[in-house]
C-alpha cells in the first residue's frame, strides 16, 4: 500500500461522489453486523478510523475496538458461534510503555482489537485521535471528526468533509476531537518521526497458531518477559 505523506499548511474541502457514499454505506453496514454480534452479548465495541470519519476508500479497514479488558475466550467464543473460524490472531505490544493488545484479523479488511493489559487515558485517546463511533451512531449515519495518517483533521460536513493539517493547529484540533493537546502533540511527534526515519519494529509481536489459546501464549510470554508479567498483573 502506498505510504501516505504527512501534509503541512493544508486546507481543503472534499465533496463525496455517489460512489463514495455507496461504498461508505456498504462498509458501515458490515461494521454494524460485526458490532451487533458483540452488543447482543452485552459488550460495547466501537468502530475506529476512516469508517467512523467517512473518508473511506475501497481498501479501508473496518477496525473494531474494545475499550475495556474482556476475557479473550469470550470474544473468540462469540466469533466461533457466529461462523468466524479461520481468523488470524497476534499479540502486539508496540513499546514497553504501551498496552498489550490482541489483534484478531477476520479478513484482509476486518479486524478486532482487544486490550489484554490494563488500559489508560493514553490508550483511549489514541482511538479518539483517529475517530471512533458506537453502534447507535453508525445506525444514525453520524460521522465524527478524527485525524488520519497524513496528520490531517477530517471534519465531516453534509457534502463530505473539510480537511486541515494539525501542524500549527494543535489546540483547535484537540478541541475538535475532544482529547488533550498533549495527546495530539505526542501522536504528531510519533508520526513525524516515522516520516523521517521510517517505521520501526514493535517491542513484542507474537503470532498465535490455530491450535493455541491466547491465554496459553500470554502465560508463556509472562514467564519469559518481566515487562509482560508486570503489565498483566498491574492493578
Task: Give a summary of the structure in a few sentences.
This protein has 235 residues and is α+β, with helices and mostly antiparallel strands. It is 40% helix and 22% strand. It has nine helices and eleven strands.
DSSP strand tally: 11
CA-based shape: globular
Secondary-structure-based class equals alpha+beta
Please give the count of helices: 9
Proper CATH architecture of the domain at 17-145 and 202-232: 2-Layer Sandwich
Share in helix: 40-55%
Overall pLDDT level = 95
Low-pLDDT segments, ≥5 res: none
CATH fold-level assignment of the domain at 17-145 and 202-232: Beta Polymerase, domain 2
Strand order of the largest sheet: 7-2-3-6-5-4-11
The helix/strand order is EHEHEHEEEHEHEEEHHEHH
Q: Termini, distance in Å?
A: 40 Å
Quickly name the level 1 CATH class of the domain at 17-145 and 202-232.
Alpha Beta
Gyration radius over CA? 18 Å
Describe the protein in words.
The strands form two sheets. Strands 7-2-3-6-5-4-11 form a seven-stranded mixed beta sheet. A four-stranded antiparallel beta sheet has the order 1-10-9-8. A hairpin with a 3-residue loop joins β9 (152-156) and β10. α6 packs across α7 and α8 crosses α9. It has a domain at 17-145 and 202-232: Beta Polymerase, domain 2, CATH 3.30.460. It is an alpha+beta fold and 235 residues long. The mean pLDDT is 95. The N and C termini lie far apart (40 Å). The chain has nine helices and eleven strands.
How would the blueprint of this fold be written?
Blueprint: E1 11-15, H1 18-39, E2 46-48, H2 50-53, E3 62-65, H3 72-81, E4 88-93, E5 101-107, E6 110-115, H4 121-130, E7 132-133, H5 135-139, E8 146-147, E9 152-156, E10 160-165, H6 170-177, H7 181-197, E11 204-208, H8 214-224, H9 226-232
Parallel strand pairs: 3-6
Antiparallel strand pairs: 1-10, 2-3, 2-7, 4-5, 4-11, 5-6, 8-9, 9-10
Helix pairs in contact: 6-7, 8-9
Amino acid at each position: 500500500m502506498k505510504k501516505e505523506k504527512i501534509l503541512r499548511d493544508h486546507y481543503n474541502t472534499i465533496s463525496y461522489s455517489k460512489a463514495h457514499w455507496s461504498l461508505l454505506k456498504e462498509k458501515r453496514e458490515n461494521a454494524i453486523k460485526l458490532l451487533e454480534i458483540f452488543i447482543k452479548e452485552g459488550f460495547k465495541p466501537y468502530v475506529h478510523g476512516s469508517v467512523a470519519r467517512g473518508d473511506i476508500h475501497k481498501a479501508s479497514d473496518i477496525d473494531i475496538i474494545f475499550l475495556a479488558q474482556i476475557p479473550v475466550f469470550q470474544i473468540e467464543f462469540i466469533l466461533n458461534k457466529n461462523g468466524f473460524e479461520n481468523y488470524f490472531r497476534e499479540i502486539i505490544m508496540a513499546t514497553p510503555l504501551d498496552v498489550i493488545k490482541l489483534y484478531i484479523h477476520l479478513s484482509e479488511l476486518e479486524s478486532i482489537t482487544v486490550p489484554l493489559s490494563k488500559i489508560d487515558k493514553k490508550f483511549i485517546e489514541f482511538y479518539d485521535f483517529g475517530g471512533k463511533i458506537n453502534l447507535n451512531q453508525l445506525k444514525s449515519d453520524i460521522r465524527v471528526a478524527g485525524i488520519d495518517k497524513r496528520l490531517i483533521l477530517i471534519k465531516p460536513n453534509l457534502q463530505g468533509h473539510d480537511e486541515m493539517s494539525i501542524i500549527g493547529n494543535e489546540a483547535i484540533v484537540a478541541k475538535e476531537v475532544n482529547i488533550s493537546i498533549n495527546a495530539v502533540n505526542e501522536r504528531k511527534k510519533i508520526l513525524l518521526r516515522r516520516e523521517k526515519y521510517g517505521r520501526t519494529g514493535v517491542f513484542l509481536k507474537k503470532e498465535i497458531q490455530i491450535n493455541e489459546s491466547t491465554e496459553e501464549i500470554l502465560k508463556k510470554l509472562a514467564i519469559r518477559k518481566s515487562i509482560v508479567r508486570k503489565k498483566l498483573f498491574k492493578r
